[in-house]
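Q: Could you fold this chain for me?
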Amino acid sequence: MLKSLLIKDYALIENINVEFGKGLNIITGETGAGKSILIDAMGLLLGERASTQVVRKGAKKSIVEGIFDVSSNPKVEKFLGKNDIDSFDELIVRREVSLEGSNRCFLNDTPTSLALLKDIGNMLVDLHGQHEHQSLLRSVTHIEFLDEFAELSPLLIEYKTEHSRLSEIAKELFVLKNKENSLKEERDAYEFQIKEIDAISPLPDEETRIKDELNILENAEKLLFLTGDIYNRAYEDDNSVQDNLVKIQNGLSELSKIDNSFSEKVNEIDSAVAIINDISDFIRSYKSKVEDDPAKLDEIRERLGALTLLKKRYGGTLDKVIEHRENIGREFELTSNYKERIAQLENDLELVRKSTGGIAKKISDTRKSVAGKIKQEVINTLAELGISDAGFNVNINNNLANDSSANFVLVDDKKYKFNSKGFDEVEFLISTNLGEDLKPLSKVASGDEVSRIMLALKSVLAKNDKLPLLIFDEIDTGVSGRIAQKVGATLKSLSKLHQIISITHLPQIASLSELHFSVEKKKIGTRVVSSIRKLESEEKINEVAKLLSGEDITESAVKSAKELMGLE
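A: Sure. Below is the predicted structure, expressed as structure tokens.
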């Protein structure tokens, strides 16, 4: 729902900020007052092309900003998340056009592209008038409208699962068949590499351990000398550290017997003696394990050289070598069993083509079963809206796949082209005059019938249409009297399910508003400025009366206005 619309320095508009409400929002105003400027600005906000000519004279840039309530629109939340844009209950959409030609777009104050702005606009608003922002005029959306009307969501979820399985199996089979010849050639290469790596059988972190061991062996002579010297000085020599500490220990012990203040020092010397004894034991044990073994040294150097060669050939690190071995192991196994795997995949693909085709047929049958209901309801609604003798049809086509195609599903042993929505192609066709051929909706020329056609379709599909806001620009062009009342009643009914903003010049429609806004054009100094304001109860009555009688509001016009508004 559109909560508010800010337009600044756009054409004749200096600065307006209008707050819309739920239900039917009506906008009226004299010809040339600026009603169409509002729609143009809204189109700009929804991704229409921009021109520097829209910037108000004397200003540097135009700004259009809309605040939408999207708290119950998970599709928008998902879209924002996918594009790394913060999501809140309110979505702020802003567009800026400067005289310098720069065109800036923002979603929740995050700069974004015009394409993204247009994408999210398609999730928020249907703008019916002289603009292109109309979902029903895009034939690709027709299948979605039909599916929502038919409540096909459970079947479509089931179909999507099978469709994904089919795609995965077909892709694996395609890759495997394309690799069949290369797999034969690669088999020998894989076998050689496996033998070379397995002959060495590298282990994770082995290189670090080997280098440490090599460093010890290469310095064995030095290690033996130093450990022997340390052991002698600490423990073995006549005047060793241990002998001197023991003498000091005995002296302190004698002193503590005379003066108790030496007791703490006795404990400390005891610790020192224990430490030197521990160090001496460690040195003696370490020295006994040191090997001066040239043969083992050569063996380790050879092992390290072999590991270095493997690293150079297969990735630069031992982890990469081990990972490469695992990968080529799987590939080697595949080269040994690819014929069996291809046969298995072909069998699986045949089965899933049938299961996918079976669900697609259920979906297609359901679509066809509701298409007739939509057709008749649209024709009836068009007649009520003053387009008699109209024709309408929901065209559902299925295309057989040719024998060379690999992209198909099976239905009763027949091959059908398919996509993510089944094997149907759906398009709404219409004719507005007796004897005319049905044509695609997208081919219907703009004019006084287009908005009423959209209104008829929307009123039939309303319960299932997920777009929260519908904007109708002078939907009443070319109608009056009884038809105007029908158009108004249809809009009112539609407003129970959607927020409606409608520009009108007919009192029959204006009288039904929840909120009524008036667009006015005033001369301020040497400039003309358009503005919009919300009308209060008495003003609404007078505005409807003005639509009935013109500028000079008569008592009878006021009375008629009240009757139309249900106030008398």
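A (continued): The first strand starts at residue 2 and ends at 10.
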